[in-house]
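This protein record is not my work; I was only asked to verify it. Would you go through it and say whether the fold makes sense for this chain? Here is the record exactly as it was handed to me.
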Amino acid sequence: MLILSRSFRQVLGVLVVACAASKVMAAAGVSGEQIYQKHCSACHGGGHPKAPALSTLEAMNGRYIMDALTKGRMQGVGSTLSSVEKEALVAWLSRKTAAGAEWEASLACRNSAVDLSQPWYQSRWGFDGNNSRFQRHTRLSHKNIHRLKRQWVLAFPGATELRSQPVVIGDTLFLAVADIYKLYALDRHSGCVKWVYALDNPPRSGLSAGKLADGRTVLVLGDMGGHVHVVDVRNGENVWTIRGVQSQNGIITGSPVLDEGVLYVPHSTLESMLAIDPHYECCQSQGMITAHRLDSGALIWTAKTMPEARLVGQNAAGAKRYGPAGASIWATPLIDKKRQQIIAGTGPISSGPDVGSGDAIIAFDLKTGEKRWSFQATRNDLWNSSCRAKYDGKTHPNCPVMGWDFDFGAAPILATTAEGKEILLAGQKSGQVYGLDPASGELLWETRLSDGSNLGGIHWGMAQAGNYLYVPVNDPDLKKVSGQISEQYNNRMAAYRPRPGLYKLDIRDGRVIWAQGIRELCKAVEKGRCGKQIGLSAAPIAIEGAVIAPSVDGRVRAFSMEDGSLLIDKATAMEYKDTVNGITGHGGTIDNASMAIADNQLFIQSGYGLFGEAGNVLIVYELEDGSG
């Protein structure tokens, strides 16, 4: 029997606006399409590299769009619209979407028990305490990965943004789906539903698992509203929820990390999206880590990446200007137990001055949150949403000097060489990889793999095994931009040369061992039938002898660790009619940290409409004969 958690029962009244669309628009004389053309088409029509396309918006459910306009990343636009206009816009955009949840009950498992005596195959973002992303709990290897066959597919109606890395314990897969506001417990062999936990805000981070002092096993995740949820794995019941951030626009993107009864939560912000309004008083939010007691959520300490913002003047539009701000932490932090410190990468500054915290790797004391050391890779990288936009043909008032947007979005890795030397590995959207001394942050070596960009370079993660680091590079083609992009941004990208691919580096000195260019590989394998965007943005997974690195054109590829040769290449961006819940689904871009591996299975979430092609399917592959 399907278990409906208390939170699920509380939010069964989902926002449905499409059914009232004609009445709303007729009464107000407002056309949703006209509102879209006036307020949204400039970016969503191709003028903004980070804006989902119209086709993606039309696949979203109404509740998700409305929340984006009222409390999410599009609230800057939403604040300029009346309630009637927002309802009309949402109704028009979601007119094609049926986001029913009837399939959940029909796919309920006969036995909803979660067996906690079985192995924990995947319980944290980095797979181990060092964030290596090397999966040891599997029979998959370079020798047999070619025998993977598709076993089953599950479609999530109303979803377009599959982003959250699952947890796998025994025969249960725990998966959060952002734009339908739910966390699922699924039988990993059949896809049946054990329980559903619903949230008031879209789940955003990857999942982590751990144990409370009383022995209960729990899942932890962060959401778009900045809340931390702790959920009992047995039945999907809420243990506690807190709003972990201390700023109005805070969100949690990086996965929370558990250690010895303490939960460490990285914090990012949506404030940089609001800066596109020239009258917005930009900016006052800082990145931070908060430490909480896992049993209760009680706050232990808060560590901010920079001092509190203060009034520093006004912009060209007359709005008050605050700073310093920014340096969000949207990657999963690393706990260095040997040195009792927690290490995190930051994003750019959203408002100056730069105090050394933007685009940096920062170490904080594990017990107190006090800052120990900081390594800054790119100084004065001022970046917010206004930096791409035109404003009366001039530089936007909230972006007087545009930076690069070169975040550290990939979680840092703590590695030990065969010779016994420890080294901290960090990858940046600049296309550079750094080797640092974990005790001091001192730079040991750096290697440039690409020019990098706001969606390129090293995006979501890397993987490490032995003396070697495996680095996916995205590098989308950003030269094709519309007239809505500022000249300043166009000039910055004039010499940009995309170099997407997978790179193998020696962690001792940063030397490149081999490089497998995806564009060249794609042309060779598909005889020129490559997608428009073919880079490697998602966090990879390493297994014995192979690296699995899916691409933004929706292909699952595995490469030999030895020489980079292609071991498998499976397309996922297609229609699926044979889903286990009987709902036709479609694959798309594979991005973020959306994979899992358990025993002889590989789980892929296909569809990431935020930057690429929308999709809504979970695809499960298994070794053909069930053996290793």
Remarks:
- The radius of gyration is 23 Å.
